[in-house]
């Protein structure tokens, strides 16, 4: 597996010398663009394995299309997609993109490291993903999935950040308060 990883890394670094590789490698838009971003920004250790990233790419894209599109509006999704594609992100957009990347990486790792897949990885001597940052209070013998907790945490961060920065991010907010300040809308009526 390491030899294949090195080959893919070499091809990625020398795309101009291998045009056939570039033609067959047309990526779709993804918030996590490569293995380094998955590890460095997503904070899930995959040993910078391009092969592992490519194996997980369909899962990442599915989570992005289903979960992220439900968390943020299509308008915000399109704005972030355009900004990321053109490298014109504002600081607030970059913070939201970082939260999205961390959510996607941790949710993907959760799906690949469930208790069942952990047993399969150990039996097959394949890689098991580990977090690059693990809280001190985390019990290493706990049977729970650390990545599930982190994905839930970053999902909450995305929702909170969107609510706090709605106007700057292009989110249309609706007032949660009930408007009774007109003649037509009355809280109480007189009994006559």
Strand order of the largest sheet: 1-2
Based on CA atoms alone, the radius of gyration comes out at 22 Å
Mean pLDDT metric: 79
Query: Total number of helical segments?
Result: 9
* Main beta sheet strand tally, sense and closure: 2 strands, antiparallel
Which spans of ≥5 residues are poorly predicted at pLDDT below 50? none
- Terminal Cα separation, in Å? 84 Å
Give me the strand/helix succession: HHHEHHHHEHH
Q: Which percent bin holds the helix content?
A: 55-70%
Overall geometric form: elongated
What would you call the structural class? mainly alpha
Which characteristics define this entry?
2 strands
Write the layout of secondary structure elements.
Blueprint: H1 2-13, H2 19-24, H3 35-40, E1 44-45, H4 50-71, H5 74-86, H6 91-112, H7 115-124, E2 130-131, H8 146-164, H9 166-169
Antiparallel strand pairs: 1-2
Helix pairs in contact: 4-6, 6-8
Task: Walk me through this protein's architecture.
With 192 residues, this protein is mainly alpha-helical. It is built from nine helices and two strands; from the N terminus they run αααβααααβαα. It has helices spanning 2-13, 19-24, 35-40, 50-71, 74-86, 91-112, 115-124, 146-164, 166-169; strands at 44-45, 130-131. A two-stranded antiparallel sheet has the order 1-2. α6 runs antiparallel to α8 (146-164). The N and C termini lie far apart (84 Å).
